[in-house]
Amino acid sequence: MPLIQPFLIAIFLFSGSATQAQGWFEYTNQEDRFSVNLPGTPEVQNTIYYSELEAEFPSRVYRVTDRESLYIVTVVDFRQAQQIHAIKLENERESEQIRGRNRWITDQRASVAQAAREFRQRGGEVTYDAWGHLENVEGHQLQISNPDGSRTFVAIYLHGQASRLYVLESTVPRNMPPPGQFQQSLRFLDENGARIRYELEPDGGTTRVPR
Q1: Residues in Cβ contact with 203 at an 8 Å cutoff, skipping those fewer than 6 apart
Q2: What's residue 59's pLDDT?
Q3: pTM (2 d.p.)
Q4: Apex 16 CA angle, 15 and 20, nearest 5
Q5: Cα separation of 38 and 71, whole Å?
Q6: How far apart are CA 206 and CA 163, in angstroms?
Q7: Rounded CA gap, 170 and 144, in Å?
Q8: Beta carbons of 53 and 107 less than 8 angstroms apart
C-alpha cells in the first residue's frame, strides 16, 4: 500500500507561521510540533495513512514546489493509536490471542521500516540506505537516483514522545546539489513550541536535554 492515500476530496489549507514572506524561511507548525526550512509557504493536505497492520491514521502533507524541485513533509499522528486499534480489532472480532495487547505500539515501531520500503518500491536506484537520527530521534535515510536523472532524498523519523512520524522527501533536478538546507533543518517542538533535543541511552531510550 502507498504511504499516503488522499481523501477523495483533498482538503487544502495554509497553516503555521513564517519569519519571511518569500524565499527560504523557517516554517513552524505548532499543531504538528515541528519546524523546517522551506523555500515558500507550503500547501497542506489532510490525508489518511495506512499502517503496516492496516489501521488508518490521520496525517498531513506539507508540500512546496520551487521551480523544478519538490519539498514534502508528511506527519502521521499516532496519538490515538491505542483507541484506533481497539476499534479495528473489535470490528474484526479477532480472538484475544490474535489481537495482542500491544499491536498499537508495534504498528508505530514498524512505521519507519514501512515508509523506507515504500520509497524503495517506487523505482530508481537506491544509492544510500541506512539508519539515521536527528536530535537523537532515530529513523532512516535514503537517497534515490530516478530514471529522469533527478535525485530524491528521504529522511524518516519516529518521534515517540510526540506520537508522530515525520517523513521528509525532497526531489531535485539532475546536477543540482543535495537539498541540505531542507533535509537537515527539521526541528522537533514541545507543546510550548520549544525545540527538543535528546540524549540516546544504551537501551534505546531517550532523555530530553535540558534547555
Answers
A1: none
A2: 96
A3: 0.85
A4: 115
A5: 8
A6: 14
A7: 10
A8: yes
